[in-house]
Write a structure and sequence with these properties.
single chain, 312 residues, alpha/beta, Rossmann fold, 14 helices, 9 strands, 44% helix, disordered N terminus
């Protein structure tokens, strides 16, 4: 599931959502506790971070979010810690980094697994002593920031292959929150969809039939995919969700999996890919659990998922 924050409330009455809200409330009560959020893409990891921030004693401070894969390794240090004028070619003015921008508030670092080892060392130093320096600077600056990180990759497996530092992992993983896939709490779809309609001024709640149609799909893209479907229906003026979802599944057959109504593409290889993707998402994006359920090797699961950079 992607956990959406509507008016800073996590939507849904399933056991998964109630548990998630309970954890968020407990974490928010502690101003500085670090949090590592894991879950499949589209499961709302940033929105969980926002929920923690806005329910905490830091809620009047800034909330900053940064995707660690969004810029080159050379620029990462400057983006996180800032730089002084003249510290490198092109640095024609002082830049305040995200740690300073987030002072008194929360810094959310998404895709933390994409940090190179050199940057991991620099981040570790900040977490160890609470101070950092801008690139080219000589003055230490106190980092008064709650750090929340997130990834959809398996960090323990990355540690085994020397791609992620175990000492950094232990410092980030003080509190671990997993965002479940939407397929794990499909009964929340009605409340989530209607909350989206209110926030986007759709003007009316969805009918029982429309909600029932929405529940007949497993959403490998999680709530992000659900919202895309709802937006498409609004833009195109389509109220028949059954036909809308049938078209959506045809368009995404090779990327996603079968719906709960049993529809599968006719082509055997495509159907197999769909099924493997379905099981993969059912088990929260775990290759090991999917392989066990399918009774095949991890490499076979990787092959049908079409990727070699999966790490769990």
């Amino acid at each position: 599931m992607e956990t959406r924050v509507f008016n800073r409330v996590l939507v849904g009455e399933s056991v998964q959502m109630k548990n998630l809200r309970s954890i968020v409330d407990k974490v928010a009560a502690h101003r500085d506790a670090r949090v590592l959020i894991t879950g499949a893409p589209g499961t709302g990891k940033e929105l969980v971070a926002q929920a923690i921030h806005f329910r905490s004693g830091r809620k009047t401070g800034p909330f900053r979010a940064f995707n660690c894969s969004s810029c080159t390794r050379e620029l990462l240090e400057s983006r996180l810690f800032g730089h002084e004028r003249g510290s490198f070619t092109g640095a024609n003015r002082q830049h305040i980094g995200l740690f300073e921008q987030s002072s008194g508030g929360t810094l959310f670092l998404d895709e933390i697994a994409e940090l190179g080892l050199e940057m991991q060392v620099l981040l570790l130093r900040v977490l160890d002593d609470g101070f950092f320096m801008r690139v080219g600077g000589e003055t230490e600056i106190k980092a008064d920031v709650r750090l929340i990180t997130a990834t959809n990759r398996n960090l323990p497996d990355m540690i085994k292959t020397d791609k992620f530092r175990d000492d950094l992992y232990s410092r980030l993983n003080v509190i671990h929150i997993r965002t479940p896939s939407l397929a794990e709490h499909i009964d929340d779809i009605g409340e989530i969809a209607n909350a989206w309609a209110v926030m986007n001024h759709y003007g009316k709640p969805y009918s029982e039939k429309q909600i029932a149609d929405l529940k007949r799909y497993d959403y490998p893209g999680n709530v992000r995919e659900l919202f895309n479907i709802l937006e498409r229906s609004k833009v195109l003026g389509i109220d028949d969700f059954s036909s809308l979802l049938a078209e959506h599944k045809r368009m995404n057959a090779e990327l996603f999996m079968k719906g709960t109504d049993g529809d599968l593409p006719d082509e055997l290889d495509v159907a197999m890919r769909c099924h493997v993707r379905s099981v993969f998402n059912k088990f929260g994006g775990s290759i090991s659990k999917a392989a066990s359920a399918l009774k095949v090797s991890r490499n076979t699961v990787r092959r049908y998922l079409g990727g070699t950079d999966l790490n769990n």
